[in-house]
Amino acid sequence: MISVALTGFFTGFSLILAIGAQNAFVLRQGLLRQNVFALCLLCAASDAILIALGVAGFGWLVKLSPRFPDVMALAGAAFLIVYAITRFRAANRGIYDTPQTGDRVTSLWSTLLMGLALTWLNPHVYLDTLGLIGAVSSQYQAAGDRLVFGLAAAASSFVFFFSLGYGARFLSPLMQTARAWQVLDVLVGGVMLVIAFGLVTSVF
């Protein structure tokens, strides 16, 4: 169970780490110290819902097609490899739009609406949660293992977003440099390749 939980946690965590508009917005609000708790809760809860749908959906599909998990595992591995390459290329370019602090106060509803848009209107979030996390969870046949995997993956969202939102004030000098984002992208790309290797070996 510990191994399953760790796989779920770090799979979810590595996907969320990828630099995107949602993370940049959470980081910016953290730097501004505006509506941080509500925004982090919104993003983490949205991820948890999508992760639950991904894990549960794959259990239903496996009953219809026993070979489906293998197909999706290979597709997930291919996606991860491509995703890792994009992270390495981004790190190589070293061009990032880093959030800056300011004096304008953003209302709670404006913050939440922006958080909803950046989460639910982002096609990549569905690939990551419904597709990729669902594919990784399919390697576990026991319902209890899938439940632990899903809970751990969802927990990683809460840990990440609240750490990002409240830790931004301490990391702001570091994370406003392009070099810090480059290092993070390289780490994310490396984790993606490790997960892709695990998916391929689970099939063969």
Keywords:
204 residues, globular, mainly alpha
**Structural class given helices, strands, pairing?**
mainly alpha
Indicate the multimeric state: single chain
Main beta-sheet strand count, sense and barrel state: none
Cα-atom radius of gyration: 17 Å
Residue share in β-strands:
under 5%
- Tally of structural domains: 1
Number of strands: 0
Q: Which percent range fits the helix content?
A: over 70%
Provide the low-confidence segments as ranges. Answer: none
The end-to-end span amounts to 23 Å
Mean pLDDT: 80
Number of helices: 8
The helix-strand sequence is: HHHHHHHH
Morphology call: globular
Describe the structure.
The protein is 83% helix and 0% strand. With 204 residues, it is an all-alpha fold. The chain has one domain. The chain is globular. The two termini are 23 Å apart. The mean pLDDT is 80.
